[in-house]
Amino acid sequence: MWKQAIEDALAKTKVNITRFGDLFPHVSENDIYDLNPNTDWTDGFWSGLLWLSYQYSGDQAFQEAAQKTVASFKQRLADNVALDHHDIGFLYSLSSKAQWILEGDEDAKQLTLQAADVLMKRWRPKGQYIQAWGPEGDEQNGGRIIIDCLMNLPLLYWAYEKTGDAKYQEVAVAHADLSRRYLVRGDDSSYHTFYFDQETGEPLRGGTAQGYHDGSTWTRGQAWGIYGFALSYHYTKNPLYLETAKRLARYFFDRLPEDDVVYWDFNAPVNAETKRDSSASAIASAGALEILEHLAADDPDRAYLEAGVQRSMAGLVKSYATIGKEDAQGLLERGSYSVRGGAAPDDYVIWGDYYYLEALLRLEKGFKGYWYE
């Protein structure tokens, strides 16, 4: 089942190389991907898809297309285009760092280290966090962290490994610790965002930008937490991170609906109109597979997590993948970008496509994505 799904995904991705040209897919409207000239936070996922496709197939068409995206990311950093946010890890881990991992390209390594320095500019020492959105001192977002940022921390951990400069590791660990304390709730659910006083660092309140309400559990946020804490464990071997990742994963898989692919928020009322988020299921599956990398064969959580991944991925392949739909631009249907905001609430989303293929390749070939070497 996994091999067929992979081959279908690679065939569609290859067609999309010509279809997208030098542009980058973001989310779809009427089943057509909206494209941008490398100005969005999601553009690394297209690069990552190309590198995954090349790593699996050895097809130079994927390699050449992926290399072109890295050249675009080099220009984006040189021009400082749309980099005033925390998603630098999403952009450069899956583009230039992927090239370094697969090809050993020294220029790609240096570009990735430069990107890590851009992310470090988001560090706010008074609160000991990486500011998610907006400029320093921003009235609305100046004191705000979001759970997604856990997936950007690997860029900093990696920079520490490559340079030996402890500042990268110290910032990543401080942010992970703060996220664990304030974004993860006592019942193992999670806040999407948390606010701190910008001057004192005092914790203020949890909230959301994407979820059903401030106290709900946005499924994609929970998935970011699963994978993000697992990656922090990989780099630091702090057992608290692995424990937290497992707790978040159990909460997620305990709440799978009948077809095993989650709705957009665990607290949203379920009816015929409730939106799904196939991307959340893909991310959580990839994250749980990362957790499994670190568990002993007799670990009591292993069987549960393996079953959760099998259910989620089988649900995606069976009911949400575009297998057999030759003209489909996306790999997964029924992803949601922002249900609350009405932005692509039931569409293709490029990060869903990326994590779907990453999870498939983990299952079939043991590939681990480009979060670490």
UniProtKB/TrEMBL annotation:
Membrane spanning residue stretches: none
InterPro entries cross-referenced by the UniProt entry: 6-hairpin_glycosidase_sf (IPR008928), 6hp_glycosidase-like_sf (IPR012341), Glyco_hydro_88 (IPR010905), UG_Glycosaminoglycan_Hydrolase (IPR052369)
Highest taxon of source: Bacteria
Molecular functions (GO terms): chondroitin hydrolase activity
Keywords assigned by UniProt, alphabetized: Hydrolase
Gene3D superfamilies: 1.50.10.10
A GO biological-process term: polysaccharide catabolic process
Positions contributing to substrate binding: D87, D148, G206, T208, R220, W224, S338
Active site residues according to the UniProt entry: D87 (nucleophile), D148 (proton donor)
Coiled-coil regions, chain positions: none
Family per record: Belongs to the glycosyl hydrolase 88 family.
PANTHER family linked to this entry: HYDROLASE, PUTATIVE (AFU_ORTHOLOGUE AFUA_7G05090)-RELATED (PTHR36845:SF1)
Record-given protein name: Glucuronyl hydrolase
Protein source organism: Paenibacillus pectinilyticus
